[in-house]
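Continuing the series of single-chain predictions for the mutant panel. This is the parent chain; the variants come on the following pages.
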Amino acid sequence: MNELPQDPFMLMSVVNMKLRDQYNSLDEFCASTGVNREELCQRLSAIGLEYNPETNKFW
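Parent structure:
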């Protein structure tokens, strides 16, 4: 996740934008970018966010 922001709020913003504009699911995003899904979810859950597959975003 080196190219993604370290700040968790900026991370959420970037990931949600990519999910909205480029990917149909978190799994597709992770597979395409090489991001570890578990690590990403842990980093965002630290600020109270979780992935919602129905809306395809973290909130």
